[in-house]
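In this supplementary section we document a worked example of the pipeline. Step one takes a protein sequence of length 119 as its only input; no multiple sequence alignment statistics are reported here. Step two produces a three-dimensional model, which step three serialises into structure tokens for compact storage. The input and output of this example are shown verbatim.
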Amino acid sequence: QVQLVESGGGVVQAGGSLRLSCAASGRTLSSYTVGWFRQAPGKEREFVGRNTWNDLSTTYADSVKGRFTISRDNAKNTVYLQMNSLKPEDTAVYYCAAALYSTYEYNYWGQGTQVTVSS
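The serialised model returned by step three reads:
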């Protein structure tokens, strides 16, 4: 079992930055691909990006490409989502999720952290 806890959300003005953390316990994240997802009010959950278990590949949704960066620190068993140039449309609850190796079956999810971008 992997337990995931997101943190770092908050309220920021458009153009600002936030860094979200996804801290894991129970298992080492070095065996897991970690994805970030978000869900805005009244909308379906959408994929934001993912970092593969071996840290060799990172993929982003077109809507965040060039603004968001995913990184991981295996020593801290934590994955980060650096969000720059934030826009009001980035407002959502952000979730991290873990999938064993490259299965992309995200069986473990955090509780989410709210990000609000004001215009």
